[in-house]
Amino acid sequence: MSSAIAKQSVVIADTPEKLYDFVSEAKRATTFVPGLTKIENVNPAQASVGQTWTYEFDWFGVVFKGNSRCNAAQRPSKYGFQTLTGNPSDWTYSFEPEGKGKTRLTLEVRYQVPEQMIAKFATQSTLEKMNNDRAREIVNNVKTMIEG
Amino acid sequence: MITLRMFHPGRTVVRLGHGGTEEGDERWLVLHRNPVAWTEVLGGCLRLMLISADPVAGGLRLNRDAGTISWQQATMFSVLRIRIRGFSHKKHKLILAALRKAARFH
User: DSSP 3-state assignment of B15?
Assistant: First the structure.
């Protein structure tokens, strides 16, 4: 199984603290991550290292179900989690001040590419492009949610 | 677990014609096996998007004149009417997408 990285960033007109609080509420991800259909069993409610939840993700018709665990909760600079089962991946959101009242939000997703998906979508580069597009959509959705 | 999505999961949500509503308003037919607590499902979704809403008879009223969501529920289906105002086109689309996801899966 090979691995790949999707990385996208965007500048948002709000503070790192506000963006951190927005992104780090695990259940909220269903509203801005395309294909993420369910987040359940969040424990504890507050974002902290060790927080866990179950997820269901529909990736263009391929459904991943599994468990996630928060592995970085450094307010307001970094928030991250791993999907432990389903399809293993490592998600990191970073929040860097950029000018007065603005923040650069960067999402980096390291993921393993299941061989059966390579077979389905023909090439790894196609799959990587699709995931990069998804990552761009995610950060742009956060920008739209925050800026209105 | 990895599976191929062969069958329609969750509730079925069908977008209906505008039927007398204003442009931009939505009407959805939702098929369900059990009664749905729409106030919690849709109100919870709005809260996650930082949009506050108050329960009113038969629906929700979004604060700051941002619109209403109303529903009529029968045993096996509901009809939702969604009227959202005062957001950018992009955010409007995002709100509708999130509400639709909530109606289907939550």
Answer: strand
